[in-house]
Amino acid sequence: MQAQVLISEVGPRDGLQSVKATMPTANKLAWIDALHAAGLREIEVGSFVPARLLPQMADVAEVVRHARSLRGLTVMALVPNLRGAQAAVAAGVHKITLPVSASEAHSLANVRKTRAQMVDEVRQIVALRNELAPHVHVEAGLSTAFGCTLQGVVPEDDVVRLAVALAEAGADDIGLSDTTGMANPAQVRRLFSRVRAEIGAHTGAAHLHNTRGLGLANCLAAYDVGVRTFDSSQGGLGGCPYAPGASGNVVTEDLVFMFEAMGLPTGVDLEKLVHARTALQAGLPGEPIYGMTPEAGLTKGFVYADGRSPAHERLPATAAGART
Amino acid sequence: MQAQVLISEVGPRDGLQSVKATMPTANKLAWIDALHAAGLREIEVGSFVPARLLPQMADVAEVVRHARSLRGLTVMALVPNLRGAQAAVAAGVHKITLPVSASEAHSLANVRKTRAQMVDEVRQIVALRNELAPHVHVEAGLSTAFGCTLQGVVPEDDVVRLAVALAEAGADDIGLSDTTGMANPAQVRRLFSRVRAEIGAHTGAAHLHNTRGLGLANCLAAYDVGVRTFDSSQGGLGGCPYAPGASGNVVTEDLVFMFEAMGLPTGVDLEKLVHARTALQAGLPGEPIYGMTPEAGLTKGFVYADGRSPAHERLPATAAGART
């Protein structure tokens, strides 16, 4: 049965660059292998940024090289700018994602560029891609699309206009990110619908956070209006998804459980996915990871959307570092 | 602006009867006062069960008497059977709620009665109400409606049939409860829709749990198909809503935040609601309480659905016992 939703695992990038420790390369490769073995078919494996700024990502080219060997996997990397895109293309990624702030205040504070300058950057990246690597997919992720901790409300018109500008600049997909955990389901439905009305199939992934507990409700809302790609992070890595001030990514395990329980195949095996936590924890000893389905286990009588039954309803234990 | 959703606070019953400690009566009254002051207009204040079985509820008649003095408050109590209903009516409750298991296995294990016997019990309670207190509202809450930890899947036909039987027995409202935290949004939409197709306006509250992180997503799903009354518990009292084996009620604070952020007035003031946690904690020192909105605070630029702005985006601190 074909997967009806694509879970895009961002832990090896978003998660790892948000924690203090650096995961050794061998552990990264083992973790990505385990995520792939669990059925994940898109993984953001790292970001192409100067190693002096983000030592956790110094080995990104090596990680990309390994990830490319995994059958059927779309290997994605974040790039902050054209220079990063050049390195990513040279390393052989399948997909580039570039964050573009919907909030001008956030854009200036974060990358010291205006939104218009970032649209230009995307245009140059697309030109590079067209020339050197026409098969590489270019995604722009609109961060702070649902609100900004600096400027507060981000006008929806700004988000829609920026999405149109990015599509015109040649980005294949434009996703919406709730960077600050401010989204609510009504807003998610409204904004994705408005963006889709303008740019149609260029509408990309929902990257939603769980800062105020609304992560899965917001994913459901996005699904309801046609979103089929969802970013999430194994174990909510990169900040406690249940606490403030943290990255608070939606937990992959809980997201997969929700869709599978709803009868929407994700292609992901929850038992193997929880098993992959062992590889994550081996590479980041003591780092807390989260997730409610891994703790509660599968429901009695659970069947996957494709009709398979799990081997066990109790999921593998994840002792060290797990929330209790 | 009229409240568009009714939050039915179950903490003083569901929460308090699930913890080991007994909250002193004076603290219960102060807590209920604080919940009422925050704008809650329906509170399940206790259950009419033998005090030797549930010492936490020995003072229920006194609590009801006090709660009746609060303007505009619907005072609800749980009753397990006719005897309890007699006591509740005598104490002066406005609304009785009786749990009826949708799972035969759960019904036998829990109350040693079949579902048919429970329908009979409701019929007798309705007769009692009609005779002695025609203004009292009788609700039946279908527990294990979304799955049972004993029998696993609960056939949806069973739930619908039982809802119809309870409506025919004279119950005013029939709610659906995810006692075991097994519901998913697709199921919530399907089952509430099926029940409403059969019993129309007798369709009652959604009582949903957060055992696997889906609590708010399930509330959203229920709202989408017309549910307007939602049970929840302040601070998720009565079990960790983020862990297995626990009661895992949806956290009132997070639920109110979701609806208000969506532009749906609840009538509840989040700052005063978080302030009410102080009264809860005073009566149950050391008992952990939960909630992500209380920790994260309101979003920058937050406005209530009725257009009011909060005094502060940072919510009152709840030090002792709060999750960190």
Summarize the main sheet of chain A.
Answer: 8 strands, parallel, barrel
Helix content of chain A: 25-40%
Please count the helical segments of chain A.
Answer: 12
Into how many domains do the coordinates of chain A divide?
1
Oligomer, anyone? homodimer
Q: Could you say which overall geometry of chain A the principal axes of the C-alpha atoms support?
A: globular
**CA radius of gyration of chain A:** 18 Å
Structural class of chain A: alpha/beta
Protein chain pair with the most extensive contact, residues per chain:
A-B, 49 and 49 residues
What is the CATH C level class of chain A, in words? Alpha Beta
Q: What is the CATH homologous superfamily assignment of chain A? A: Aldolase class I
The end-to-end distance of chain A, rounded to whole angstroms, is: 35 Å
Series of secondary-structure elements of chain A, N-terminal to C-terminal = EHHEHEHEHHEHEHEHEHHH
Side-by-side strand order of the widest sheet of chain A: 1-2-3-4-5-6-7-8
Explain what the structure shows.
Two copies of one chain form a homodimer. Chain A is α/β, with parallel strands linked by helices. Chain A has a single domain (6-296), classed as TIM Barrel (Alpha-Beta Barrel). Helices cover 40% and strands 13% of the residues of chain A. Chain A is built from twelve helices and eight strands. In chain A, strands 1-2-3-4-5-6-7-8 form an eight-stranded parallel β-barrel, surrounded by eight helices. In chain A, helix 3 links the parallel strand 2 (42-47) and strand 3. In chain A, helix 2 (25-37) runs antiparallel to helix 11 (270-283), helix 4 (82-91) packs parallel to helix 6 and helix 7 (156-168) runs parallel beside helix 8 (185-199). In chain A, 57% of the residues are buried. At the A-B interface, helix 8, helix 9, helix 10 and helix 12 of A face helix 8, helix 9, helix 10 and helix 12 of B.
